[in-house]
Specification:
The chain is of the alpha/beta class. Helix content is 39%, strand content 18%. Strands 2-1-3-6-5-4 form a six-stranded mixed sheet, with helices on both faces. Strand 5 and strand 6 form a beta hairpin. The protein is globular.
Length: 173
Amino acid sequence: MSSSTPDKAITAAVITVSDSCAGGERTDLSGPAVTEALRKANFSVIGTEIVPDEQPAIQNALAYWAQEARFVVTTGGTGIATRDVTPEATLAVCDRLLEGVAERMRLEGTKKTPFAALSRGVCGLRGKSIILNLPGSPTAAVESLHAVIELIPHAVQLLAGHTSHDSAGSESH
């Protein structure tokens, strides 16, 4: 992590969005993979949840975890299938968007597969928390997270009010 890493681990929560996992028909592999990647990057994962592909359920989970954690990550529901509504749920609960974060994930993803361009995942802010949508595939979710994880500590600091420029010349936007 960068020099802007706070002394205390950033709290995170992982929400898996999947009808089949929520219904017990399939084992969630993406949520645990993302949780492990966050822990390896020194985030403190304080909660996980599995919800169905239902916009109200996703919105409720996002709103709850955004009060508890500074970084809320979803996995699943970001494609173009009819039931893929995670971006809509995220947009409904966010105050502002961080378009560049989602753009960076897609840019990095297209280096491995052209299908990454079909992801509709977004990144936004709710209060002092960042909400990030990742794809549902365990591999794609972890790769997408790795594409942007170095940005999160600095973004969390900015949201916490630490907006001064450091002596190395990095900018706070």
